[in-house]
Amino acid sequence: MRHGEPVGGKKYRGQSDDPLSAEGWEQMRAAVGEHHPWQHIATSPLARCAAFSHELAQKWQIPVSEDKRLMELGFGEWEGKTPQQLMENDPETLLRFWRDPLHHHPIGAEPLTEFAARVSAVWHTLVKEYKGEHVLVVAHAGVIRMIMAYVLGMPMDHIFRIQVGNSSITRIHIEGEGLAALPSLVFHNGQL
Predict the structure, then answer these.
(1) How many structural domains is the chain composed of?
(2) What is the CATH number of the domain that holds 91?
(3) How far apart are CA 35 and CA 149, in angstroms?
């Protein structure tokens, strides 16, 4: 599940720790409703994910863990800027990045290959530690995109072709275990 709208609206916040706005809290609570089928919640430690995760965990007595590997892609000097601000001097800057994030990333950004390795590592940890359990992962658009790329066998440089809405849910089912496990996408960008 992706976090809801943070304070400050739409911008490249990456690893900036903006909390959820009042609207973001409403989005998250509405997306989950009274559903609570999870045996565990894993969350990014950033406030826009962790605060809701801990509220949900407390409400339904579900164990929760924070993992730094679930943090968003670091956007370097783009962090805190809106898309409009980024395109003021160069209207094509975002399009170049979305098309080829390996070669057109922001200055000081986390390299996409390192981000992919970080997300892949946390994915394998979650699959191994919570084998056979229903786990809710509360994270960021980039993390969800990278997991989907892994599950679907997409090139990592195509992740920005996937839209991930605020408080949307992506469900992945895993059949089998270990190296023989087969993850499959059940639905994406939906609600419960």
Answers:
(1) 1
(2) 3.40.50.1240
(3) 27
